[in-house]
Amino acid sequence: MHAIRCPTWRYSLGPRNAPPLPFVQRRWARVQDVRFVATHGEPDRILDRYRAKLDEKARKEGHRSVEDLRQAYKDRIETVRRNPALVPTSPPARPSSSFTFPSAPPVSPAAAAPTAPTPSTSKSNGGIKPLSAYLDLGKVLDLPAREIEYVWRLRHAESSNSLCAVIPSPTYRRIASAARRHPQFILPLPREGQGAEIHFLQWTFPSPTTSTVLFTHLAEYKLRGEYSQPHTTVTHHLDLADPKGLVLLQGQVMQDRGIGVEEAQWLLMCLQKFYGLGEHDASPRKRLLEQFSQGDGDFAVEHLLEEAEKIS
After folding, report:
1. CA-CA to 284 of 20 to 30 Å: which in 79, 130, 178, 203?
2. Going edge to edge, which strands form the sheet with 246-253?
């Protein structure tokens, strides 16, 4: 607060020729706990806002009132107040995607049983298994598209670290077209209370019927370059793209690499948001792809985070 100075008062209190008294500025500010100022009065407003839900929860748990519910949870509330880090956090919201991660469906016994692979199951194309190593293509071609999705899921159900998805052929063609123009990119992975981790992805096209994506922690890639170890590998199988209109995705999340299956799924769906755009799309995501590929200095991670966190 600034002190008020009035010339009339100063000269009326003493002789006109008297030297002016030294001005002393007084500060009347008080030190307050910012946390108190920011939250003063909030509990009542929060209680009023959620009273209906609290009343419903109290009834379901057999309490007569919200106050009884509060008393029942008193110890837990005090624990959370003392240590806010104990508050459970939700995983990052998934962006919308055309990828289909199939759920358990009712299927016929013949379709549900994993089909036997054909004799040609040896790895090819730099160690990448062909689709015939997973499915009997002769039998799969006789199945409708929906049942192929179910069989593909069941084929990978036993592995807790595997990824599988079914992509419509038109969607994959858009993604692959962009991937050939922009074979490298980075994607953010939000971490609750920690900002976001940045991950480096790289496309390869080892054969006409397969394409792969390798995901690596950007920090490790900067440190080790081509010798860095990916935490997730993804292969797209194109054998059924023309006859069935489906591209089958299969991936593996490496253990003890700091990434879980749900986080890998987030990265895959985030990949589609940037690579699944039309050729003539002029969205900010496409500009980010182009800026990264060209080494443009205007590329900003902040803009990348904004676009990645948008739902659509």
Report:
1. 203
2. 162-168, 246-253, 232-237, 210-217, 195-207, 184-191
